[in-house]
Design goal:
Largest sheet: 9 strands, mixed
Shape: globular
Structural class: alpha/beta
Distance between the termini: 80 Å
CATH topology of the largest domain: D-Maltodextrin-Binding Protein, domain 2
CATH class of the largest domain: Alpha Beta
Low-confidence stretches: 1-41
CATH architecture of the largest domain: 3-Layer(aba) Sandwich
Length: 284
C-alpha cells in the first residue's frame, strides 16, 4: 500500500516537473516582441513602419529598409538594447496601426503616425519626434495653388488618414475624395491623371517628389494646411516602454543623430524641416 502511494506521488511530481519545464520554454517566446532592457540570445523586436514612403519608411528592392522613420526606429531600438540585426520591421498600413498595437503584433510603431486626441484614446504616443505640415502634391503644370482650388476636383489620400478629411472640412467641401490603400497608389493615379492632387504631410510628399523616376513631374503646392506631430505609438498603458522611447529620442536629438537623419533622408528633396520638437509638446 505504501509502495503504491509512493509511486503515484513520484509520477505526479515527474509530470509537474515536465509541465514546468515546458511552460518555461514556451514563456521564452516573449522575447520576440520585447522592447525593454538588453536583448541577446537571438531575441528580436518587432517594429511597425511603412513600406512605401520614400524618405521615411521604404522597403528597398534588396529587402533592406531606408528612411527617416527607419533611422529613428533603429536608434530607439538600440537604446532599448537591440542591435540592427535583431530588428524585424513589420509593415503597418495606416488603417491597421491601432489594431497592430492592440494585438501585440509590434512593440512600437514609427510610421508617420500623427498624434491626435482621437488616436490617444487607444494608443499611447512617445515624442513627438518630427513636426510636419499637410500639403498638396500636384503635377508641375497644375493650376492648383490653394486648397480651395480642389472644389470640384479629384483628391487622393489613404484610407484612415486625417489629411483628406482636413481638406474637405476646412477648405474644399466639394472636393471628390478617392481613397487608396497606400500612397503609391495615389501617386500612380496622379501620374495618369485620374486624380488632380495627392494630399498628406509635406515630409511624405517631398520623399516622393525626390524620387529619380518622378523628378520634374510633380511639385509641392507649398501650403501649411495643418500641423502634424509625428509620434511613436505604443500599446495603451505600456508606460515603461513609453518612457524609454522618450529618453531615447531626447538622446538622439542631443547627440545630433536626429539632424543627421533629417539631412540623409530629406536633404536631396530640399525639404525645409522644422527644428526637432520637444518631447510632450504638441503644436496645434
Amino acid at each position: 500500500m505504501f509502495t503504491m502511494k509512493l509511486r503515484k506521488v513520484s509520477a505526479a511530481a515527474a509530470a509537474a516537473l515536465v509541465l514546468s519545464i515546458t511552460a518555461t520554454a514556451c514563456g521564452g517566446g516573449n522575447g520576440d516582441n520585447e522592447g525593454g532592457s538588453g536583448s541577446g540570445g537571438g531575441d528580436k523586436i518587432k517594429i511597425g513602419i511603412k513600406y512605401d514612403q520614400p524618405g521615411l519608411g521604404l522597403k528597398e528592392p534588396d529587402g533592406s529598409f531606408s528612411g527617416f522613420d527607419v533611422d529613428v526606429a533603429t536608434y530607439v531600438a538600440k537604446e532599448l538594447g537591440y542591435d540592427a540585426d535583431q530588428i524585424e520591421f513589420v509593415e503597418t498600413k495606416t488603417p491597421d496601426r491601432e489594431n497592430a498595437l492592440k494585438r501585440g503584433d509590434v512593440k512600437f510603431i514609427a510610421a508617420t503616425y500623427s498624434i491626435t486626441d482621437e488616436r490617444k484614446k487607444s494608443v499611447d504616443f512617445a515624442g513627438p519626434y518630427l513636426l510636419a505640415h499637410q500639403d498638396l502634391l500636384v503635377t508641375t503644370d497644375s493650376d492648383i495653388t490653394e486648397a480651395t482650388d480642389l472644389n470640384g476636383k479629384n483628391l487622393c489620400s489613404v484610407t484612415g488618414s486625417t489629411s483628406a478629411q482636413n481638406v474637405r472640412d476646412d477648405f474644399a467641401p466639394k472636393a471628390n475624395l478617392a481613397e487608396k490603400s497606400g500612397y503609391s497608389e495615389c501617386l500612380a493615379a496622379l501620374q495618369n491623371g485620374t486624380v488632380d492632387a495627392l494630399t498628406t504631410d509635406d515630409s511624405i510628399l517631398a520623399g516622393y517628389a525626390a524620387q529619380e523616376q518622378y523628378k520634374g513631374k510633380f511639385k509641392l503646392a507649398g501650403l501649411k494646411l495643418s500641423n502634424e506631430n509625428y509620434g511613436i505609438g505604443v500599446q495603451k498603458g505600456d508606460t515603461e516602454t513609453l518612457n524609454k522611447i522618450n529618453a531615447a529620442l531626447e538622446k538622439m536629438v542631443k547627440e545630433k543623430a536626429w539632424d543627421k537623419a533629417v539631412q540623409d533622408n530629406f536633404g536631396p528633396a530640399n525639404y525645409k524641416n522644422e527644428p526637432a520638437p520637444k518631447i510632450g509638446v504638441i503644436v496645434k
